[in-house]
Fold:
Amino acid sequence: MQFDIERIVHTALMEDIGLGDVTSMAIVSRDTTMRAELVAKEDFIVAGLDVAAAVFHHLDSHVRFEKIFLDGQKVKRGDVLAWLKGSALMLLQGERVALNLLQRMSGIATLTARFVAAVDGTGANIVDTRKTAPGLRALDKYAVRAGGGRNHRIGLFDGVLIKENHIAAAGGIAAAIAGAREQVPHTLKIEVETRDLDEVQQAIDAGADVIMLDNMTNDEMVRAVELIDGRALTEASGGVNLERVREIAETGVNLISVGALTHSVVAVDISMLFK
Amino acid sequence: MQFDIERIVHTALMEDIGLGDVTSMAIVSRDTTMRAELVAKEDFIVAGLDVAAAVFHHLDSHVRFEKIFLDGQKVKRGDVLAWLKGSALMLLQGERVALNLLQRMSGIATLTARFVAAVDGTGANIVDTRKTAPGLRALDKYAVRAGGGRNHRIGLFDGVLIKENHIAAAGGIAAAIAGAREQVPHTLKIEVETRDLDEVQQAIDAGADVIMLDNMTNDEMVRAVELIDGRALTEASGGVNLERVREIAETGVNLISVGALTHSVVAVDISMLFK
Amino acid sequence: MQFDIERIVHTALMEDIGLGDVTSMAIVSRDTTMRAELVAKEDFIVAGLDVAAAVFHHLDSHVRFEKIFLDGQKVKRGDVLAWLKGSALMLLQGERVALNLLQRMSGIATLTARFVAAVDGTGANIVDTRKTAPGLRALDKYAVRAGGGRNHRIGLFDGVLIKENHIAAAGGIAAAIAGAREQVPHTLKIEVETRDLDEVQQAIDAGADVIMLDNMTNDEMVRAVELIDGRALTEASGGVNLERVREIAETGVNLISVGALTHSVVAVDISMLFK
Amino acid sequence: MQFDIERIVHTALMEDIGLGDVTSMAIVSRDTTMRAELVAKEDFIVAGLDVAAAVFHHLDSHVRFEKIFLDGQKVKRGDVLAWLKGSALMLLQGERVALNLLQRMSGIATLTARFVAAVDGTGANIVDTRKTAPGLRALDKYAVRAGGGRNHRIGLFDGVLIKENHIAAAGGIAAAIAGAREQVPHTLKIEVETRDLDEVQQAIDAGADVIMLDNMTNDEMVRAVELIDGRALTEASGGVNLERVREIAETGVNLISVGALTHSVVAVDISMLFK
Amino acid sequence: MQFDIERIVHTALMEDIGLGDVTSMAIVSRDTTMRAELVAKEDFIVAGLDVAAAVFHHLDSHVRFEKIFLDGQKVKRGDVLAWLKGSALMLLQGERVALNLLQRMSGIATLTARFVAAVDGTGANIVDTRKTAPGLRALDKYAVRAGGGRNHRIGLFDGVLIKENHIAAAGGIAAAIAGAREQVPHTLKIEVETRDLDEVQQAIDAGADVIMLDNMTNDEMVRAVELIDGRALTEASGGVNLERVREIAETGVNLISVGALTHSVVAVDISMLFK
Amino acid sequence: MQFDIERIVHTALMEDIGLGDVTSMAIVSRDTTMRAELVAKEDFIVAGLDVAAAVFHHLDSHVRFEKIFLDGQKVKRGDVLAWLKGSALMLLQGERVALNLLQRMSGIATLTARFVAAVDGTGANIVDTRKTAPGLRALDKYAVRAGGGRNHRIGLFDGVLIKENHIAAAGGIAAAIAGAREQVPHTLKIEVETRDLDEVQQAIDAGADVIMLDNMTNDEMVRAVELIDGRALTEASGGVNLERVREIAETGVNLISVGALTHSVVAVDISMLFK
Structure:
């Protein structure tokens, strides 16, 4: 993940700073040193502290950045997440990018933790999707893990997910699964999307490793889980929200995928205060 | 903006596809052609159709992409936003990235339009901030414009915004403004952040071009606007939400900046349906 | 794979051409058009014709490149693989890079095809490894497929392979498998390396999806296959060569991985003849 | 060469690791430190130890890497080439890339040394060609030097080599040499490819600095060397192998170019053993 | 600016060194350490010492580089600007690039200082243009500041300059200014190019923030300044040279832009002497 | 050279345009098409027309660009060099970058042509140096050729030039030449810098291919040329200007290198006029 962090941090700083922070360069002396704190303005699960550190270190390896919390921990309004010290010019230039990353990642971790808590004790795992902010997938998926969720495939390259269009192209679920089994590295499981119990039965017969239950009612899912009977992992997908997630988990599915974890992120509120 | 689109689209496709869509490559023939439609699953303001087209064209310049709506238009649930036709493999590989971009950008435009509508007739403009998704600023800011908002400075390089720390470093508002005036290109206005009427007065006296009223009450803003009396642009900032924005606009400020436009985006729901 | 081809072709051309082919630029007129043929100088399985085309198209989109064979086909000494026509300067500048790629890829396909033929009828699949030329993995692995082999995981990111060091770090096979199951995306199978039947038994008990039989004798492999009895895929690894591969396949293993396919490539002989 | 090493190492690590070594990240603690040794599994000439070190340092500047041999030295089966110590996660992630580079480079050095030994005492030099692995030319050519060979031109930009097509385009050897002399930087020698003694004579008359004797018999080469009589360097090219190279050297040519040094590399066997 | 320095230094070193300094690598031992001095061969204003340092540090972070002068200072023939110590190979490889940058930047600073001196006491500022060496704008503009000049907009993105074509497209000065005011970030001033007093009047009426007086005679400029009477900044542009610049400044304009500062740079003479 | 042009054009456009030409985007309709002419405002030798075309084509492949002159031709004040037609937005965005490149390159060609004319009939060639604008070497050297000059080595990688420091490191001219001969590709000539006739004699004895006469008087050069008597090429270097160049040429040297051709470029005056 370190190469992704480097790329993301570099791109974000270039985008924000360009040829320079004209305000600070005009006003702040190059020799001024400052100390600052990252302070939580509400309660949340923190994620991204190492990424925030990487922002300042990309600008200036001499900035000191000390974490007080670790990613995945719960913080309360008023908690100091980390403090940093270094050239005032560098602190001012990195502030916005560091906060943008930290606030988004903590927002993801916090929402994920809510979903995870909602299914507590059911045995179901909350997983993410590929509905991430373009360019930020590595961080979005890391933040899901920090919040207690698990990752679905990272991209199209590291997981097989046979959808409606693939089934149509192959001429049926059995043919699609056989085709994939024939071609993809043996290190990958074969997951197939199903819309009703008939398709679930076909997926079982074709030896799917994972069966996605797409937009099914809770009742349908209960029957699908019974039908599958441990021969494949089961994943509930579609229309999952905090209100409904517990009921879904109680159908006995193994995995519940939630697009909102990463496609509709509410940034948490964090300030960088100079001392 | 075209270079940013190229960079963003390239990065997002690399991130999602890597060495290839193993599922589609195993199942879908290289010669299959498909037609698909981008369909709105709710009402919203659309933004990003050209970017979605760029995703498919980056994969394959032969894909045909026809817009039916233009960015900034209001669409209703069920509307077809665009249709496209080309290699099934390319359509399947580009689908998720195109939707991720289009759903985020339309989410921004839609929220912006709500803020703009809320201040209708007051003369105030809604402006964005630098609280954007790292790497996506060009698109985030474009989407704000599509929703009827206006852009604040793009980054630290194209606008002067003197904040608390700068004032402290310079030894006062007057000194900070003078320092900036001395150094920055004459093409840039000088904006200064103020927290009370005393600071507003100092900013006026120092010849600020734009005065930010930071976290002030409506009453304070009314008095600030009177005090300034057209000698500088005024910008309300801090704690702005849809409930409160109309009142703020009625204080007479010229600009209202809203971080949530881009830091807490709710993706709109759009599907890509294959026909 | 198209992004990899672009990167590889661009890098190779930069490396070979730099500021220009000083010889051709001094002697050959910019307006001269030439026709050339790629001719096999021995019998082999061809792979890389589209990549060779990409070399010339990267230099000049106007070069015409017509394939006469398809990747994966057997060609005989004297066969014309493709012909091309275009600016003499571009043909001369692309020649070496195109041949270097085509000769290496065809060498891989040809060797792979020999291994595949050697196990014909046994049900075993020949798979590659990560022992590829740095930077060329996408092409090396594609060439293996062109030769009738199958791909193992592409890199460290899309497959789980628990080796000796992981087992030591985790404190045993069971703990290592459980740890991986807990953390990695559910789309990935868990493969574990074993060195004797005792470890094979542990891997079965821990529910491994794939069991690698590392440097075992044929007898050991026969017994391992019996022990596993279809509960996991089996992969023979270590010391595989053309002499021994048939016996290995007859032990009943599902997969035989061969590092030499890509780490010790003998380039086939191909000439580009100008007409 | 340092920029090439950086590029090659970065590309190779990205290719192999992508978003991360899912196995090691799941199983190995971030705090574990390990020691490992690079051990020769056969006799060979080593090349690439600094490049192997660069792989680990690119991942983590804190890894300690101590060479025990130097590039160009002969090592025996069982020799420890280098030892390294650092984060277990980093050692595991860098292992395959480091070995892939080191095994290929040592394979090139070893084969080169065999050719060099074969011509010992004749005064002829063994030189490489442009038939290198795309993207790896700097390392391939370095390894040739480590094996005691010399480099021909690096690419099309730093040497003039007038071939059949150039002669045809110019209308003869004399015209081609004159054209090149007129245009290319005076820092470059003019080499021309000849196929028989008549062409050799033309090359001499036109003042070629280097004359390549392409696919000539030993007898022809003897006569060519006599004819040239020190007025130009001579290079034997085409169909050179270990069996024939001594005879070729004894014809009196100055240089013998061998494509196989880099186009058909047999990787030497090296293991990385964790202690 | 640090990212620009990194890019420029990297590009320049790649361009000059490529695969290596063949001369030094053949002759100079890798272990030799050298000391060198950068010595002024004429009088000038120095600029670019940190950039020169960055060249050597990019090659080798162990090179010691000690500045004796600071950018913007006047140096005399014979002055030692800085001394450096490190690997002879690195010093030799960085020499030309460091000098090329330092000589150009000091040339710009020196010419700028002459223009600044010429208008001393008039209140006019000397500003640069976008007529910079492609790829080097950040350094060219920095050198102007080192010479006492000020920067006009950096590029098309951070300043509004309405020219003849824009006015034609908009249908007049008033419409063009109104259009820009409507669209561009409020952080940017609106500058408009005028060719006569009538256009100046239109610009005033439309509320331009800055009025460029393009290719006007001194008399016209005097009248324009009177007409504008402090309601906008004024910029003289076109045909400015050292002979005429004082007269122009005495017309009362605020800014005088000089393309020659960066488009026709005479490098100052600096040597790197090894001790 | 095409890869260099792509890199340079891309970098220059990014640098100038960034997120966009805010002025034109606000005022000029996306649908407006314009026609423009590149017009000479003085007499000069043109160079760079294809590069100027590449600027516009990089922005928009639909822009039509028709050259009326060819690089290397003499143009007179008022001549139209090329005309172009396309989206007004693209023409306005590319204008400055295209002119910056064309004006610099034509400035180099024009100055070179003056030096070439000054030595007409003497048999001496004017050559450039490595004193080019960082990042622009390929274009600077191309422009020298367009002006009738010849190129010295492109960088440190494609030519051997043994200077004072190398001689000191090697322990004398003979040792330095022998060391280089031993190591560098045989495709490169060996050039050595000499400061007096004694060193010239040493260079001859050591078999130098090219002898640089560094900062010698005309008399010394006459004697050096006699001494060398055709056994090596001769290059005059140091303190060459238009006044002195003819005398130098008449000493009988083969090459005269002129740093000012590229380190002190006076841009020619060219306008882009919209019709």
